[in-house]
Structures are given as C-alpha cells and as structure tokens.
Write a structure and sequence with these properties.
about 210 residues; mainly beta; 2 helices; 15 strands; globular
C-alpha cells in the first residue's frame, strides 16, 4: 500500500471512523520511522475535527493538507498549535507551505516548525528520501515550552513577501530568508506537519493575501 492514504483508508485501521470525524477533504501522508533507536509509537494516525480546527494524534510523523488549500504570490500563513501531549524526546510540529505532488514520489515542500524544548527549525523536503536544512534547530525565547500541565501553545506565522520570507513565533520574527535558493519556491499547497509520538491541536489555520 502506498504511504499516501485517504482518511477513509486510515479509518479501516482504526476503531474510530476517521472519515466522519476528520475535516472534510483533508488528506495525509505518513512518514514511517526507519530508526531502530527512535521508532514510531503503535496505533493509527488520527485527525479529528474541532470547532476551530483539528486535533492530530500522531504515532507516526505525517503531513496533513487539503488539495484546495493553495497560496501564491505575497501571502501570510498562520496557525495556532497547542501541544497536548509531548513526546519523551524532542519532536517538531508546524506549518507546511510551497508544496507540490504531496502524494507522490516527487513531493516537495518547505516546513517551519517548533518543538517542546523551545527550539524551531526550517527544512525543505525533496522527494521521498531527501530533506535539507534551511535553518537548523535553533533556540528562541519566543517559543513557549510546556507548562506544569505538559501543554504549550505557539502561534506560528510566515509572511511571504516580494523578496523575502519572515518566520514568526508568537508575533516575534525569529528568522528571515531571501526568496531565493532553497526558499525560492513558496507557491503551492499549504498544510501542517506533526512528527511522531505527538498529540497536537491546530486552530485557525488561515492563508491571507498581502
């Protein structure tokens, strides 16, 4: 079976009928861990619709997107991510943008993410096996860590402008890249990525033209 699956297919592997509970029309692509020292957790990936977004439970890493959600030109993409259940070690979650062919072997996208240890990173995916660091894992005071309850909420935003891209966490610019090189292609599908062993709620995922 291909790793790119519809929610209806995932539902057959789960007790919960995800096709009914997931946001309509959304799709996922799972990335199974190949590391013996950092394996995936057992169980199916779940995506449940909420009043203002969705709630993702990820034993495996996955990208979630709706094929109609595309952006081009100058735009802002934002979403509020609440880490409901941290993993036993650092795993990242956040925004996907500039995506193409997400269901096939020539998938490409950029992703801007944060983690429970107060760090963020920016990467580029090219094909099934290749990821490239645009900006390596970096600590920043703007990234909120889990409180005593184990939860944290971070508002992520990226602003694609004519000649640069700004990356914000909780309304603070943590990085800027030129609209060239690895971050030249920003037109395309947008969505979210949640890495394995995490439970994350996503609210207010929106794109607006600038």
């Amino acid at each position: 079976m291909k790793r790119h699956v519809l929610f209806a297919i995932v539902a057959m592997l789960s007790v919960v009928p995800l096709a009914a509970q997931a946001p309509e029309g959304w799709m996922l692509r799972a990335d199974a861990s190949t590391s013996a020292v950092d394996p995936d957790a057992p169980g199916p990936i779940k995506l449940m619709k909420t009043a203002t977004g969705f709630h993702a439970t990820n034993p495996q890493a996955a990208v979630f997107w709706h094929p109609a959600n595309t952006a081009a030109g100058n735009y802002s993409l934002k979403g509020t991510f609440t880490l409901v259940k941290p993993s036993g070690h650092t795993n990242f979650y956040g925004l996907v943008f500039g995506g193409s062919e997400l269901g096939g072997p020539r998938q490409t996208y950029l992703y801007f993410m944060v983690a429970q240890d107060g760090t963020w990173l920016l990467k580029r995916r090219v094909g099934n096996e290749t990821t490239q660091d645009v900006m390596v894992k970096t600590a920043h005071a703007a990234v909120r860590k889990p409180d005593a309850s184990g939860m944290s909420t971070n508002a992520l935003e990226l602003r694609v402008l004519a000649d640069k891209i700004e990356y914000l966490v909780n309304n603070t610019v943590v990085h800027t890249t030129p609209k060239s090189g690895m971050t030249a292609r920003t037109d395309g599908v947008y969505g979210v990525r949640v890495n394995h062993q995490l439970e994350v709620r996503v609210d207010g995922l929106t794109m607006s033209k600038l």
